[in-house]
């Protein structure tokens, strides 16, 4: 813990000592073991990161280790926090108590800028690091021309296909983005597959993750964007999220439920029970191991406004209250170097977030198995200019994102469960707008 | 597991004291001295109670009238009764809260009779002079000492969906292979039932011990007299046992109903990491915590807290009233 | 119901009790057996209930897998839980019994009003103040003392102590007073030693509640270095990919201290619980 926390803690203990002498003695005496003071003349940088998969956690711990051994005067102290509690932990922690460097999920960035928890990193990270970030990563970390975060990796959505099953059912599937299938063609493909399938369930949408979660928003807002709608337009959901086009797209989505394998064991696609799996890049390692050459990667279906995918992932930023900005910047430079980005993206199979590693990546290079994801990310829309020609959409960059995702994913889950899309979307839009008006539109300072 | 409104232990072998007023007669010279010492002695605990119970509670009431968000740069804004309107009557926003109230009522409506009845049955079974009866008492009491975080995990595995869960697998054997995989926690029909089962398992030993103590206070002569009158076992239960423990039974039932309104740990753990169906199991406390912690909406969470408190107080007051009439018998 | 029974009745009693006890203990058996099984066998239905071979591998893995400041250390979680329980139990015994004595046995103006206030505060369950406390003490997140201090003063403990103290005959204090002892000396030298039962039952109930405490740590703790065991239990079982054998071994280690206390103080446990409810 850094200095300010130590001070206010002492104040609290003094106050406590006046009120409850014994309690203070016991509690403040015992608690001091958590304070680790830095050695004289050197800086300790505290870092928070989400725990992630075991392989990601160890890649990160190695990055920290190598940074520490390369530095004389700076020492990084890493704390891993469970994924499910990560965002709320940062939200709940007072700005003065945040670590020097912290990771955060892409769409939550605006909220942390709004809450004055993040500093702009432009002054701290080197020009080289900034220049090496991919456009999509830079776009994700930017608000009003300032950058608040950079990521080691990006993300992408697609549909994994089982070539053998598709061919057996005589289904024609797209080669890439240019000849993407429309929603109607996709429905027809599902029907054709159903005829050949034992239980009639031929699609996996990772239902086990739950749809009223960030997976729901990330995985299926492309349906909204591809139909010409958006989650939020000029700070309002009404008129963007509840348009007739979006309603009709979600009706189509709803109609697919009969084809969906509940996939309670997580093995539906790998075991060949379904021919199609609607999911992100992260399943590639598992799927390619299970299917080998039969694995193909397809874009999400086009609902009229061109195929779309989600984008963005965990980013690194520097907290607004840091006293070690320079050292924190040096740590970010080190995290984002080729060695560490390669190690991390090897661990989780994600699209690298830096130009140099992306160029060398066997998975994402031209002709590589995941070239589609790289192609999608090369056509970024940002969060508001969602036209027909761009593909990778950033989730709304707004401090009100927590509400947007909560309400949208709930509506999505309700629709999937059988609710009327028009009612559900209108309700979500009203709830989002109500929350925005409660918070004066989440105007960034 | 916390105890609500209980009656006290008394020093072994002593009669309860008369009223406090007559307990310690003093000459007036002691009064001033005693006041200083009395205040000094109670100051640490009183300070703690005021700081960590009194003040926060009043603060909750105040916060519930404001639009206040955790970490927001906007100052809290006076909201009047808006938070209450939203959780009770707003067509868009009242849903989850009203559902949580309903879930709590369902939980209580099942758990109170089932757990009390089971506890009574166990207590009667265990109120015998048998060898090793102490061992049996300990076995039934054992789950009470298990933290809910652990209970939730054990039952999550027993109820695991898929054929590899213990329950599904056992049903499959019993039904000669006709039982498939069933998602006990994830299915909206059985999610609440699963929570009830694991909560009763964990809690019933507690009520059992209280009832057992109640049973042991019934004088043995009453049973001997009943036997002389050739009363059947059921008649003895009906006319000796039940009246004898009526007060205790009412107390246990009310205690269980208050505890059942405080359900949180198992719901939170199993929704967040165990595939528990959220909507059919969310409780008022779950709603308060997620509103505060996941949505940062402190104002609304405070309003939920205040409603929660009013329900608990109402239950406690009913409990007192019933217990009083019970004791007059 | 304590009557002599025929051998047949006794046999029936034992059968019913044994069957019920087995059903009750099954989850506990499942926990303990599972903690010694290879992980693949934990979730393998009825067939895997009885393990093929037992080992301490899971325990070793649990103790080894938490091995850095970033993830925390198992013994540290345990230490935090023990420290919190000790502080809350001991601190609580001291200040709550003192308060109870001051309120129940010393006569002073306003004493009745203060005692009524304590009774009123007893109506407020912790859950009802968790949200405002969370908001009020937000800047003290991730400290040991914010996890312990709010739970030391306890209205219910005061009430338990007070009722016990009131039943002590006044003649005992009178004698002490004649010997020249003030209220403090009377309390510590005479009242406390003769009140062991109530101290034991308050200590046990407080310990049980504190050891399993979950709601408050969920709200206030994210740093693994000050995380108590039950919270880490829920974190550990939610981490993908889950190794169930290790999770159950963690569970056994979590319950072990309570079981030890339970084994030694069984009588007090039961008596403490029972006396918390039954009058006279």
TrEMBL record, chain A:
Keywords: Signal. The keyword Signal applies. PROSITE patterns: PROKAR_LIPOPROTEIN (PS51257). The keyword Mitochondrion does not apply. Residues 1-26 form the signal peptide. This is Sugar ABC transporter substrate-binding protein. It comes from Streptomyces actuosus. The lineage of its organism: Bacteria, Bacillati, Actinomycetota, Actinomycetes, Kitasatosporales.
From TrEMBL, chain C:
Gene3D superfamilies: MetI-like. It is a multi-pass membrane protein. It is found in: Cell membrane. The chain crosses the membrane at residues 12-33, 73-101, 113-137, 143-165, 186-208, 244-265. The keyword Magnesium does not apply. This is Carbohydrate ABC transporter permease. InterPro entries: MetI-like, MetI-like_sf. Keywords: Cell membrane, Membrane, Transmembrane, Transmembrane helix, Transport. The lineage of its organism: Bacteria, Bacillati, Actinomycetota, Actinomycetes, Kitasatosporales. CDD domains: TM_PBP2. Residues 78-265 form the ABC transmembrane type-1 domain. Belongs to the binding-protein-dependent transport system permease family. Pfam families: BPD_transp_1 (PF00528).
């Amino acid at each position: 813990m850094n200095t300010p926390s130590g001070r206010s803690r002492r104040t609290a203990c003094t106050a406590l000592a006046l009120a409850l002498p014994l309690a203070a003695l016991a509690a403040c005496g015992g608690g001091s073991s958590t304070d680790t003071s830095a050695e004289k003349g050197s800086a300790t940088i505290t870092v928070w990161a989400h725990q992630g998969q075991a392989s990601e956690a160890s890649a990160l711990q190695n990055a920290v280790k190598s940074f520490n051994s390369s530095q004389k005067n700076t020492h990084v102290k890493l704390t891993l926090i469970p994924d499910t509690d990560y965002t709320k932990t940062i939200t709940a922690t007072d700005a003065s108590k945040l670590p020097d460097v912290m990771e955060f999920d892409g769409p939550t960035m605006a909220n942390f800028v709004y809450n004055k928890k993040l500093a702009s990193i432009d002054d701290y990270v080197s020009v080289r690091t900034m220049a090496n970030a991919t456009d999509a990563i830079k776009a994700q970390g930017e608000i009003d021309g300032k950058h608040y975060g950079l990521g080691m990796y990006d993300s992408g959505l697609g549909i994994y296909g089982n070539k053998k099953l598709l061919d057996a059912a005589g289904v024609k599937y797209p080669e890439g983005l240019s000849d993407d299938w429309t929603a109607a063609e996709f429905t027809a493909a599902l029907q054709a597959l159903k005829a050949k399938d034992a239980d009639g369930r031929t699609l996996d949408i990772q239902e086990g993750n739950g749809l009223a979660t960030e997976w729901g928003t990330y995985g299926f807002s492309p349906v909204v964007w591809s139909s010409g709608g958006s989650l939020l337009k000029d700070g309002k959901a009404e008129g963007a999220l509840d348009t007739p086009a979006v309603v009709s797209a979600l009706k189509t989505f709803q109609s697919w439920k009969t084809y969906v394998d509940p996939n309670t064991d997580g093995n539906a696609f790998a075991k060949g029970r379904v021919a199609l799996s609607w999911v992100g890049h992260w399943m590639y390692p598992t799927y390619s191991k299970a299917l080998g050459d039969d694995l193909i990667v397809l874009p999400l279906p086009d609902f009229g406004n061109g195929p779309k995918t989600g984008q963005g992932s965990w980013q690194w930023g520097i907290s607004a209250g840091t006293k070690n900005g320079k050292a924190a910047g040096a740590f970010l430079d080190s995290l984002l170097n080729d060695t560490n980005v390669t190690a991390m993206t090897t661990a989780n199979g994600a699209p690298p977030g830096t130009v140099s590693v992306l160029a060398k990546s066997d998975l994402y290079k031209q002709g590589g198995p995941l070239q589609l994801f790289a192609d999608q990310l090369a056509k970024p829309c940002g969060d508001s200019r969602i036209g027909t020609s761009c593909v990778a959409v950033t989730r709304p960059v707004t401090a009100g994102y927590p509400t947007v995702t909560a309400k949208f994913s709930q509506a999505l889950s309700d629709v999937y469960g059988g609710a009327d899309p028009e009612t559900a979307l209108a309700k979500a839009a009203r709830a989002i707008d109500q929350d925005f008006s409660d918070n004066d539109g989440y105007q960034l300072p | 597991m916390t105890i609500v409104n209980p009656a006290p232990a008394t020093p072994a072998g002593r009669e309860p004291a008369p009223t406090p007023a007559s307990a310690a007669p003093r000459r007036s010279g002691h009064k001033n001295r005693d006041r200083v010492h009395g205040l000094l002695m109670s100051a640490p605990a009183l300070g703690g109670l005021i700081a960590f119970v009194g003040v926060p509670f009043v603060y909750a009431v105040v916060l519930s009238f404001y639009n206040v968000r955790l970490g927001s740069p906007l100052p809290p804004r006076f909201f009047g009764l808006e938070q209450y309107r939203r959780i009770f009557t707003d067509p868009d926003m009242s849903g989850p809260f009203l559902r949580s109230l309903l879930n709590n009522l369902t939980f209580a409506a099942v758990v109170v009779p089932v757990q009390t009845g089971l506890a009574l049955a166990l207590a009667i079974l265990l109120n015998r002079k048998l060898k090793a009866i102490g061992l049996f008492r300990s076995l039934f009491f054992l789950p009470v000492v298990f933290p809910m975080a652990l209970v939730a995990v054990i039952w999550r595995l027993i109820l695991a969906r898929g054929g590899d869960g213990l329950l599904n697998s056992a049903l499959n054997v019993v039904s000669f292979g006709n039982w498939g995989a069933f998602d006990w926690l994830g299915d909206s029909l059985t999610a609440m039932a699963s929570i009830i089962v694991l909560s009763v398992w964990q809690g019933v030993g507690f009520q059992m011990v209280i009832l057992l103590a109640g049973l042991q206070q019934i004088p043995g002569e009453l049973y001997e007299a009943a036997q002389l009158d050739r009363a059947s076992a059921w008649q003895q239960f009906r006319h000796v046992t039940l009246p004898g423990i009526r007060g205790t039974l009412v107390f246990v039932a009310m205690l269980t109903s208050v505890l059942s309104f405080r359900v949180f740990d198992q719901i939170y753990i199993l929704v967040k990491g165990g595939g528990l169906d959220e909507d059919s199991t969310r409780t008022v406390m779950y709603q308060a915590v997620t509103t505060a912690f996941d949505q940062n909406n402190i104002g609304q969470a405070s309003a939920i807290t205040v409603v929660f408190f009013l329900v608990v107080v109402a239950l406690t007051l009913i409990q007192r009233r019933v217990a009083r009439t019970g004791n007059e018998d | 119901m304590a009557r002599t029974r025929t051998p047949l009745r006794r046999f029936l009693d034992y059968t019913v009790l044994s069957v019920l006890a087995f059903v009750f203990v099954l989850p506990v058996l499942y926990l303990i057996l599972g903690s010694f099984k290879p992980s693949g066998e934990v979730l393998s239905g009825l067939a895997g209930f009885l393990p093929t071979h037992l080992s301490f591998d899971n325990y070793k893995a649990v103790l080894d897998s938490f091995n850095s400041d970033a993830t925390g250390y198992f013994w540290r979680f345990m230490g935090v839980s023990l420290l919190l329980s000790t502080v809350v139990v001991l601190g609580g015994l001291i200040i709550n019994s003192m308060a109870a004595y001051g309120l129940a046995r010393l006569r002073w103006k306003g004493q009745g009003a203060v005692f009524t206030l304590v009774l009123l505060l007893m109506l407020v369950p912790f859950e009802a103040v968790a949200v405002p406390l969370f908001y009020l003490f937000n800047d003290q997140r991730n400290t040991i003392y914010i996890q312990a201090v709010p739970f030391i003063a306890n209205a219910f403990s005061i009430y338990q102590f007070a009722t016990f103290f009131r039943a002590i005959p006044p003649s005992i204090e009178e004698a002490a007073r004649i010997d020249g002892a003030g209220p403090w000396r009377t309390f510590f030298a005479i009242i406390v030693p003769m009140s062991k039962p109530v101290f034991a039952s308050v200590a046990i109930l407080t310990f049980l509640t504190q050891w399993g405490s979950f709601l408050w740590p969920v709200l206030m703790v994210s740093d693994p270095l000050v995380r108590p065991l039950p919270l880490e239990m829920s974190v550990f079982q939610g981490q993908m990919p889950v190794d169930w054998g290790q999770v159950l071994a963690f569970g056994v280690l979590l319950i072990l201290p309570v079981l030890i206390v339970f084994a030694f103080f069984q009588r007090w446990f039961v008596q403490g619980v029972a006396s918390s409810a039954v009058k006279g």
